[in-house]
What does this fold into?
Amino acid sequence: GINASGSAIERVAGGVWGPYSARFKAGQVLVAPRHESPELSADISGAEAQVSVVAWAMKETGHSTPGIKQSSMAFVAGVWAEGIKARQYSMWLDLWKGDLSHLIDCEVSAVGGPTPGHEWCITRAIGTRPVPQNVWNCVALTYDGKQIAAYNNGTIERRGNGTGGDNFYSNPLNYTKGIYRPAPGHAGGNFTVGSNVCDAPGYFEGR
It folds into this structure.
C-alpha cells in the first residue's frame, strides 16, 4: 500500500469482523497496484462488467492531518483515477451538494473521463439517508450491468425514476454501458481504499 501522509495507518481496538480496525486520517490511502491485483481493477472492465463493493465504515472527525489538502467528498473504495481519466467504479460518503450532504454516492463510468457534456461523472446512484458519524455503517455499491445502486445498512434507498442527471438524482440509476476499459498502452487506475488519489483527493477519515 501507499501512504501519502508518511505516517502509518493506525490499528485500533474495535471492529466488525474482528477485534481491530484500521483508522484512516486525511492523507492516508491503501493501494492495490493494478498489475498485482487485476481482479480488483483490470478484470472489472468492459461492456459486460459487473461489480459489488461492500464496506463497514465508521466516519470520525478530529483526525485531519495538517497540511493535507482535502476535498469535500470522502472516498471509501474503488478504481477512480481522475487525473489520467481512468475512472471505473467508486463509492463515496459525504457529498458536498446541499441536501445531498452525508449521503452514499456510488459511481460507475464507461468512459474513464467526465460524462460527455459535463464537468464531472454524473452516472451515479445516491442514497437518501445521511450516514451518521461514530457508528458502524454497512455501505455498498452494486452494478449488475443494468443499474448502479447504493445501499445503506442493507437497504436500497430508492429515489428518482432511474434517469439521473445534473440536478436530478436516482437510486438505482439505469446504466447499461459497462465499465471503462483502458485502451492498449494506457496504464489504467489502481484499486484504492481511503482516497481516490488525484489532484483533489477525497480522504475518508475514520475506521
